[in-house]
Specification:
single chain; mainly alpha; globular
């Protein structure tokens, strides 16, 4: 899939609300601990902060979440364990 295709599928990299982030994580069936490294965070607390509105996600985090919702899976995607 080319970059243009991904951009078309995930839309613009606008930020996401805390509720949208929480809903995305639940839709992806991931824990905060599983999602954190997929977004580039070392601590699951960062995901909690995003979901509570304590921390505002950058455009890259929003774009990654939208790509995951559109079906993109990196090699290190958590297995269904």
């Amino acid at each position: 899939m080319g970059d243009k295709d991904l951009t078309t599928q995930v839309g613009s990299p606008r930020t996401m609300t805390p509720d949208e982030i929480l809903a995305a994580r639940k839709t992806l069936s991931l824990t905060q601990g599983q999602l954190a490294p997929l977004l580039g965070y070392a601590l699951k607390d960062r995901v909690s902060e995003l979901e509570r509105g304590v921390r505002k996600p950058g455009a890259a985090v929003a774009l990654l979440l939208r790509a995951y919702l559109a079906g993109y899976r990196p090699q290190d995607w958590p297995s269904g364990e």
